[in-house]
Amino acid sequence: MVPAKKSPDKSNHYGKDNTFGGYSTSLVVPEDFVLKIPSNLKPEVAAPILCAGVTTYSPLRHWGVKKGDKVGIIGFGGLGDIAAKLAITMGAQVVLFTSSEEKTTEAARLGAAVVLDEDLEEEETLRAHKASLDFMLSTIPEKTDLNPFIPLLKRNASLVVVGALEPLSSMNNMEIAGHRRSVGGSLIGSIAETQEVLDLCAEHNVGPAIQIIDMKDINDAYDKVENKEVRFRYVIDISSLKNSLAV
């Protein structure tokens, strides 16, 4: 059961009633909200695409990312991983910005250039990337200062936030207005876009990096997410639910 209202733990859900479903073995939904999972896309890979996949695909599509564009991805977690893969699949050159030196090897393996956030304070790094990006996507799931990234956008380019749903730090509008840059936001995506990204991932054999866990391990997995130890999405094996209930 997922509470579909604002609960004491500050989680915010749509609607006024409780929503029963979530980990059910079956449920009934209107056909307009049913998606077709391509036969060559494994269920455990498809599951995160329904959330992280469309959340990052929708702004890439809406803001017209195309072959030859240079795209910056801020943050290299569950959203950043699939965002980089989708942008590369769409023909873009990707630059990943991360605070974790441990993730640089994994980012490079995707074919992306990597910049550590702390290096943006160095004049040489800033000069190398200044006004070079056609589009930027911030996937950081918390309030963060985006001002250091604004100068990296080309004229008329946009930085879109998908990770944080809270008030952000004030921005230097001189860096934005002076080059007609834009800062925007995006939240998940449409049913049509969700089907598109499923089909795209199936066609190009692209998917999020996942770790499959049993239901009994969910608390341990939650702690690892909090400690930024997950690489990059946990997927619960729903068949393990019966075993957990039997214990």
Automatic annotation (TrEMBL):
GO MF term list: alcohol dehydrogenase (NADP+) activity; metal ion binding
Record carries keyword Cytoplasm: no
Top enzyme category: oxidoreductase
Cofactor names: Zn(2+)
Keywords, comma-separated and alphabetical: Metal-binding, Oxidoreductase, Zinc
Domain Alcohol dehydrogenase-like C-terminal: 78-202
Domain of life: Bacteria
Keyword Transmembrane attached: no
InterPro entries for the chain: ADH-like_C, CAD-like, D-isomer_DH_CS1, GroES-like_sf, NAD(P)-bd_dom_sf
Pfam families: ADH_zinc_N (PF00107)
EC number: 1.-.-.-
Name used for this protein in its record: Zinc-type alcohol dehydrogenase-like protein
Species, as recorded: Tunturiibacter gelidiferens
